[in-house]
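During the no-cost extension, the postdoctoral fellow (Dr. R.K.) reprocessed legacy sequence entries with the updated structure-token encoder. One reprocessed record is reproduced below for audit purposes.
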Amino acid sequence: MYKYVKRILDIILSLIFILLLLPILLLISIILLFTLKKQIIYTQIREGENKKPFKMYKFRTMIIDNNIPDKDRITKFGKILRNLSIDELPQLFNVLKGDMSLVGPRPFIVGEPLPSDYIDPIRYSVKPGMTGYAQIHGKRKLSHKDKIKYDVEYAKKYSLLLDIKIIFLTLFNMIQKNN
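Re-encoded structure tokens follow.
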């Protein structure tokens, strides 16, 4: 039952966030258009619910040149977007489309090598999210194994209260990080 309520909430909240953030989204788009002069949205094929592939959107933060190491391709503006996690905002459109949810396990890249001995299929029984249980427990500090452990825990007990808790803790962590 909550799965249907969650989808309705995802649609309503993603629309509200898109409308509220529209000036910021437009400003970032204009800056990226002038600095990168090419595609401002980066798409990557990720694994969704039931491992169904989908295109995940992000603001482009790197110049397009495969001859340069990744760490040297990140633009100054891109570094700011990444540090503030603003490069992830286009995923609101993934949520609106139904590819993602606001809360759920972060989607893996299709073909990303992961040891199969610790991938529990229940992880893929829920839509991937912009933020999730693993993100509030350490985000970049966690190993793949620990992230998956939190993802499985979330998939087994997700609820409205848990989603609200994750959203508030995500916002709190973002504010803490930037102070």
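The beta strands are 41-47, 53-59, 101-103, 129-131. The chain has one domain: 2-177. The remaining legacy entries will be reprocessed before the final report is submitted.
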